[in-house]
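User: Please write out a complete single-protein record containing the residue sequence and its fold in token form, without commentary.

AI:
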Amino acid sequence: MPAGGDTWKRCGPADRHVLTGGAPISQTILALLDRRETARPVLVAAALVADRLGDARIEVLHVRHDALEGFMPTEEVMTARHREELDLEAAQLSSDLHAMFDAWRGTRGNGLWREVVGQTAPFIAGQAEEADLIVVGHGPRRLKADAAQALHVALFKARLSTLLVPPVEPAALGSTVAVAWKRSDAAIRATEAALPLLLRAEEVCVLMETDHASDTAPLELIDRLAQAGVPVHVRRFEAGERSTGAALIAEAHEAGADLLVMGAYSHNRLAEFILGGATREVIAVADLPVLLHH
């Protein structure tokens, strides 16, 4: 069994795990294209992950929205002209994204384009059984509607690993990986999902906030990576006046990481929505790819 096919299973105390043989986790990558400014970075990121995994295939999805989707008659009148304008905008976006896909595929020689009309969430949910990783683009400060829907469905319904990509083409992805570690089920599952990438990295840095003094480093992961010849070290940091999310991004940059792996929404989702949390903070400020898993 190749190293890339290793997974974790729980063994003994809640914070102890061992690696066991299993099938590769990320074989089919679903790249969601919803905006011009993030399309190319999403495609490039998907290709970098596929290349690092070696045998992953990429499927590209664009969801074209119907003009009547979300239309509220109390707000405005949907005239035939307005409907035509919205349809033309949707068609132009689709044409532009398809052209960007064709240009990207011309440099790779593979990749499948799929376009559907409707709402994003149902189509992402429908792809859950076929995809192992979804790649979503996000802009500064917040996710747009399609990306937010995709993230919600992928994380909480489909239980898919989700790679968030900022609107900048990554030069590398998975060479130096930072792992945000805090003893929680979400962090454990995120690290499990990232193992195929971690075992193919040139270096792994485990980030641990000193405020969580009771947390211990994931020794089994460190030993397994060391056995596989992957240099790994623990970097402890103090958030200070920074939010935890901002501190994680800054520490990932300090470690020279081109990818951050973290558990998503380890606390109650409603509480994090109202009060905030590390996941929302990271999404707001991330300027490097982030691999999330709930």
